[in-house]
Each structure stands twice: as structure tokens, then as C-alpha cells.
Amino acid sequence: MSQLLGIRGLRTTFPTRHGLVRAVDGIDLDVRPGECLGVVGESGSGKSVTFLSVLGLVRPPGKVEAEAITFQGRNLLSLAPTEIRAIRGRDIAVTMQDALTALNPAFTVETQIVETIEAHEPGIAKGEARARAIEMLRLVGIPDAERRLASYPHQFSGGMRQRVMVAIALACRPKLLIADEPTTALDVTIQSQVLDLIDDMRVRLGMSVVLITHDLGIVAERCDRVAVMYAGQVVETGPTAEVVAAPIHPYTRGLLRSMPSLAHLDEPLVPIDGTVPDPTRLSDGCRFLPRCPHAVEVCARPVGLRAVTAERAARCILAEVAR
Amino acid sequence: MSPLRLAERLLQLIPVLLGISVIVFAMMALTPGDPVQIMLGDSLADQAQRDSLRRDMGLDLPVVERFFRFLGNALTGNFGLSFFHRRPVMDVILERLPATIELTLVAMFIAIAVAVPLGVIAAVRRNSLLDRIATIGSMLGVSMPGFWFGILLILLFAVNLHLLPVSGRIGFGHEVKMVTGFVLIDTLMAGRLDSFLDALRHMLLPAVTLGLAMSALLMRVTRTSMLEALSQDYVTFAEAKGLSRVRVVGRHALKNALIPTVTVAAIETGSLLGGNMIIETVFGWPGLGRLVVEAIFSRNYPLVQAAVLIYATTYVLLNFLADLLYTVLNPKVRL
Ligand SMILES: Nc1ncnc2c1ncn2[C@@H]1O[C@H](COP(=O)(O)OP(=O)(O)O)[C@@H](O)[C@H]1O
Ligand code: SF4
Ligand SMILES: [Mg+2]
Fold first, then answer.
1. Which residues from A are below 8 Å from B when comparing CB atoms?
2. CATH homologous superfamily of domain B94-294?
3. Interface contact B234-A152, CB threshold 8 A
4. ipTM exceeding 0.95?
5. Residue A178 maps to which CATH number?
6. Which atom of ligand 1 is nearest to the CA of A46?
7. Which residue has the higher pLDDT, B267 or A211?
8. Structure pTM?
9. pLDDT tens readout for residues A35-77
10. A251 Cβ partners below 8 Å, 6+ apart?
11. Domain of residue A305, residue span
12. What are the extents of the domains in chain B?
């Protein structure tokens, strides 16, 4: 089986005072066993909502629709609440952007790890769950793990707190970790430590990782494949090396040109002109059209994700040319 | 809170309490009406006797000296003689205090038992029928005068349905020897289950009247803080861990949401003590509140003075307790 998680035609909308926000609008994505998939896009492009939708964590009045969301061959959409709950945290785990707000300030780290283990292994002995908690803290490199169990989240430094959240997420050895902007809240020096940790755990536990970020540089360094998101849609996917070397979608090109750390050092840095479209007023045509230097008339008509090679696709009329 | 910080907070209470004593003293010193006149009333005492009483009470001294005497006495619990009872004020107050404390505690218990579950359900089922009913109910509860609601309850349950007693703390023939002053405890200690139940029946209406008014406010606080907690990232993360809905709502959200509820409850217990005056009068409850009302009407200055001081001190201490609870419940504030 070449896919662990398959998302087909995912649409998530939020009714708001200003109109219907189409946060995620027709997403197709695959996550393969053992791989690291980078999901990159500007803030507000729908990265977090996509994966909250997969786990059924979008709160009303938000509405999730999809043709299928399959995980290990099971359609998550047709599962009962208790069945999807059994998958959350055990098979698919999440780390959130800011550990300071994601960890509960009122409970010790021990409580927050142990309750996760107990939720998925009912009847486990207290001592055993505690031993596992200590083991997890050690595994993610928290010094003096046994003593730190009694600490509250605010008593850790930012980097250590992020590690605690990773420890909680990995406590039940998930098959898929969704790491939502794991380093955005951190100092640059700590960022690579946390990314190394996630990478290391991926190899050790043999799990897949979805690395959500707005930093294409991070993806280029660490991910096998990449999905670029824009305004609630995937605009380009493919093996990271190929996408970085020869981007097809003008948005991906723009992202690469606006990045200081990548290979194209000879070219000057150019920010992308214009702004992201209003999510309540999205056009039917290409959503990048107002900012696109290559736009032609047909771009105003619906543009689907077009395969370029077996491994690559882009949501742009230029995909034809590339093929 | 570290012991040092605790000591610091306690020290901060001293100027507050001192200020309160100044105000209480000044209020009484400035009130028109001659205490000696009131105390002796229409009796046939002559001027010499009146002067002698005036001297005994220290009323002939300069005002500053009188204040320090008052303060010194207050610190040792000596508030002088009650004009009316001709007994030390403190004795009279201590006799009545347990009834008020007991009523307040039971009322607060009812308030929390009603408010917290309702507030949680209203937040979880936001905008549902139940949420709307609870919202309207709490608005009524906040705006309805307690004495009016109390009288309605008396008319319904005592006068018309004869289900509960009209007034008092315990029925005839059910009296037991008072040891702690708390009738619910004393009846049980005396092994009189019948008396215990009778006392409970007496307590029900006044406690419900006080408690429901308080629960209206506490429910609003719980609902608001619960809604706030439910929208936090840590709730999403807790759900992403695969925890049950009960655990996510009942532990992750509730423990944070209860911080404001408990704090408000502690502070409001102080105003319950004050609100007791009317309710105790309506229900003929032999507590401090009714004593004070009687004392005010009979211009029993020493007693009113002592009671106001006790109310104010209790209020300040309850605020301190609220702070303390806030710290205990909220690990982030722990210093
Ligand atoms: N609960 C919500 N109600 C309304 N709009 C929302 C809600 N959650 C997310 N959105 C909107 O959905 C879009 C995508 O959000 P998100 O997935 O968080 O972006 P990203 O993670 O890529 O920064 C944004 O426009 C955001 O404003
Ligand atoms: S479809 Fe047209 S407008 Fe959209 S990105 Fe491609 S060229 Fe630009
Ligand atoms: Mg996000």
C-alpha cells in the first residue's frame, strides 16, 4: 500500500458574519508510510484546518465535507465518534504550533502524558504508565526526566516545552505525526534541534510525518515530498528536490524567489506582489490570478490540479507546457 | 504561594482593617443621638447617674483617645455592653453567629451545586434551549429581590402546601444541646436523626432563597469562563490526544473555568453574609443578620458597631481567601 493517509476532495467551510469562509476547498493529498511530507503555505492558506478536518476536530459551525479520507484503508468519515477517538493520539498524533497554549496550564506534565496512554490502553497499571511517561521525556531529550514529570508546562523553556508536546504526541507510538508549525514559536537556534528530534523519532518509530510550515527552506532540507498550499487549495505537489529545482506554479516560483536560504543565490530576493485573497470572496478561476505575472484569459476559468509526471502535479495552465 | 509572600499578603491586610475601624468608629461617633439617653431610655435616672454612665462608657474622653480605646477593646473582642441585652456585645454576637455561618455555608453549597453543572451544560450546549432557559432563569435570579422570592416560597411551601415550616431554626420538641452552635452538626452529635431532619426542613427555604440568587451569578461566571476555556488550544490538543469528551470537558476545560467561579464564590460569600439581614428577618432565622436589624432599629450602637466591624473584616478575609484559592487552583501564579 503506497498510502497511509489519503485525502480526496476535502472541503471545510466556516459560516461567519462576513460570509462563508472557504478555508479548505477541494484538497487531494496522500501521505506515504515512513515519509516526511512538507505542507507549506502562507498563514491562512488552510494548512491547520486541513488536518484538523482529517481528525474530525473542526468545531461547529465549521463544516467538513470530503469524497473520502482513508487511513490504513478505513474511511475516517464513516467512523463512529468512539472509533475516531481511538485513532486520535494512538494512530494519528498532532503537535500544535505553540506548546504554551496547547498544553493545559492547570495540569502537570505527568498527568498530560499519562492520560494519553491511559486513554488508549485502558487498564494499564499506574506505575507502568508513569514509567512510559518518563521514558518518553528521556527519549525527547528532557534532562532529569523523572523529576520534571511533576512540573507544570509554564515551568519549561520554550524549546523544552515543545519537546514535552512531542513526547505526549508520541507516547502511543503513532503511525502518523502531524507537526503543525513545530518551530514557529521558537528561537532560531532551538528550531533545528526540535526538527532533528522529530526526524530522529520518525526514523526510530518508523512513522510518517506531515511537517506543516510556512518556511519552504525547512521543507527543502527535511521533507521527501512537498505540497504547496494557496488559498485553501494545493497548488503544487511533488518530490521536494524536483519542485525546488524546477518549480512549475508561479506561486511556488515566487516563494522560492522570496527565500534567502536556497540555491538560487545568484538571483535577487523578490517578494510576491499583492496579497492573499479574502477567503469569503474566492473566485472560481485560478486564485493566484491577481498576483500572477503569467496570467492569461483562460486562467479565470476553473483550473484543476494537473499531473505533470507520475509524481508531480500543479494547479496551473503552465503544467501543460511543463509536460 | 511561598510563606514569605503569604506573610506579605497578610501584613497588607493590617492597614485595610485599620481603615475599616476608623470608618466604623467615625460613623458611630458622628451619628446623632446620645447613647446614654438611648441606653437609659425613659428611666428616672438623674443627671449624676447619667454623667457617671457617660464616664464609665468613656464618652467624656477626647475623640482620639476614644478611638484608641475602641481599637484596643475591639482587638480583644470587647465591644462593650449591648444596650438592649445588658450583656457583653461579643457574647450576644457569638451566640447568633453560628446560625448565620451555617445558613451561609448551606446556601453557598446549594448555589455551587446548581450553578456549576448548569453553567457547564449551558456552555457545552451553547445556544440550545437549555442554555436559553438557564440564561433567562439567571437573569431573573439576579434581578429578583430576595425577600420577595422568600415570601413567595413561604406562601407556597409553608402556608399553602404545609410542607415546610414558616420560620425559625428548629421545631418545638426537637431542640438539642448546642455544642458547636451548628444545628445540623449538633443534632447529629446528639444522635437525634428526627431533629436533624427537622432542622434541615427549617433551613431549606432560607438557604434556597439565598442560594438561588447566588447561583444565578455563579452560573453566568461558570458559563462564560467555560466558553472561554472550551475555545482554547489545550482543549483541541486534549481532543487530538483521543481523550473522551467527558474528560476534555470535565477536567481540561472545567479545571481552568473553575478558577474565576471559585474566586467569585469566595468573594460573594461575604455579600451573602450581608444579604442575610433581610432573609433572616423574613424567615425568622435567629442569626447575626436579624440581630443587627433589631439593633439598628433600637439604636443599639455598640452592637451595630461590632457587627459592622465583623462584616467588614470577614469580607476582607474572604477576599484574601479568594486570592489564596486563585493561587492554589492556578499553578501559573504560584510564586
Ligand atoms: N473557527 C474558524 N472560524 C472561521 N474561520 C476560520 C476558523 N478556523 C480557521 N478559519 C479560517 O480558515 C482559513 C485557514 O486557516 P488555517 O488552516 O488556520 O491557516 P494556516 O494554518 O494555513 O495558517 C483562514 O482564513 C482562517 O481565518
Ligand atoms: S493558472 Fe494562470 S493565473 Fe493561475 S498561476 Fe497559472 S498562469 Fe498564473
Ligand atoms: Mg496554522
1. 52, 55, 57, 81, 85-90, 93-94, 96, 98, 101-107, 115-116, 119-120, 152, 154, 165, 168-169
2. MetI-like (1.10.3720.10)
3. no
4. no
5. 3.40.50.300
6. 17
7. A211
8. 0.85
9. 999 999 999 999 999 999 999 999 989 999 999 999 999 999 9
10. A228, A230, A235, A236, A272, A288, A291, A292
11. 5-91+174-322
12. 94-294
